[in-house]
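During the no-cost extension, the postdoctoral fellow (Dr. R.K.) reprocessed legacy sequence entries with the updated structure-token encoder. One reprocessed record is reproduced below for audit purposes.
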Amino acid sequence: MTESLGRALAGNFLGHASNWYKLTILGFLVLNPVVMIIAGPFVAGWLLVAEFIFTLAMALKCYPLQPGGLLVVEAVIIGLTSPETVYRETEHNFPVILLLIFVVAGIWFLRDMLLFVFGRILLGVRSKRLLSVLFCACAAFLSAFLDALTVTAMVIAVAHGFYTIYHRVESGQHDPTNDSWMEDASVPELQRRDLDQFRAFLRSLVMHAAVGTALGGVCTIVGEPQNLIIGKVAGWQFVEFFVRMAPVTLPVFLIGLVTCLLLEITGWFGYGAELSPTVRKVLTEFQRHTDQSRSLRERTALVMQGLAACVLVVALGFHVAEVGLIGLLIIVLATAMNGVVEEQRLGHAFEAALPFTALLVVFFAVVAVIQDQALFAPLSSWILTLEGHLQVIMYFLAAGALSVVSDNVFVGTVYITEAQNALMAARISREQFDLLAVAINTGTNIPSVATPNGQAAFLFLLTSALAPVIRLSYGGMVWMALPYAISMTVVALLAVAFIL
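Re-encoded structure tokens follow.
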């Protein structure tokens, strides 16, 4: 009986995850209190950060919510942080939570219109190189005025829609409620190679677009949450923020597009996959059949979704309310005008967002540990002892390095607050403060593309339903983002060093 109970508990722990993964998580849980006692909370805090990054890296083995959640629960128990700090950090990021819950669901109700528009772009532009640059540039432009998570949600909805169409056609699974289309076993052997190539095609487009959200997001005060915080502290409005960032952001934007084109030309780092003629034929025929069979009511629904999308863009562009509340507005408009009034149909829209929302709160708990144990304090204190332009350069490098392993919003908030305190204490001049603000903003936005945990949009992509079906893992994202991270960071550093 004891042996059977033990086997049952082991089998239930983290479900279908590999045994070595389960043992690793258990090892972390045993190790953390020991390190806390022997080496102290500072070392234990950094160990927790590394362990959480490990759970993100193994997201395809096990969704990070459960193992990451166990780690942060233990962190609270052993005193690395407190429930009050976790709640305060979550409350501080409440607008992001609202955004995830409502905007992502709102995009779900616009998916037919998005597939209609992007289907014509994807099938109309036959040059993969031009298509990639278009995806990257459009994502950058939208992210400069909208939220990067909103743009990423749009990209995910489009890519997932195209993948679903092709997979269901080739596997013969036309029932949208049947999830067996997720399995390759239902696809005939002859079509497997086309399916793998289609996955590679979508991976490259999605990664180009994801990097594009960073390229555009760094440029304006509304592009990323930390931009708004930094701009508010510095007293900059929209135009002044753009002008002050331009010496760094414009060269970075150009090198980002050049990198996109070169990656497609060379085919390095997993890019360059073309849309095979077989897949193009399937998608084209599906599009033609859908257009011919679309009823007047369905065409009207597309128009209403398009109008709702226009409302979304205008409302976000003019910031008439918090982003999450605008998302709720889109849900109301898109469902009320298209007859989606059943609770069951509404519930499907929230399935993609809520697991990631829970994971993000776990991430905020890790940030609470960073805050309570002052894990960044030694580096920050040392940088403030430097003088002149060297201090600006080191702020950029430090903000970039820490944003790679932590939340760039938190890093930006910590560093701009320290710079503001130094200004108020007359340790730096106003001119130096302005340069530091530019360095902090560009440092948190640009090098952080190197890892999924650096930016919420990247983390959302990694943990979305799209990532496993197109075989996009943590390591895969790091590898595909590497050339962008290197080229963009080098150009940004040169700009900070010689143009500012």
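The longest helix spans residues 238-266. Residues 1-80 form one domain. The remaining legacy entries will be reprocessed before the final report is submitted.
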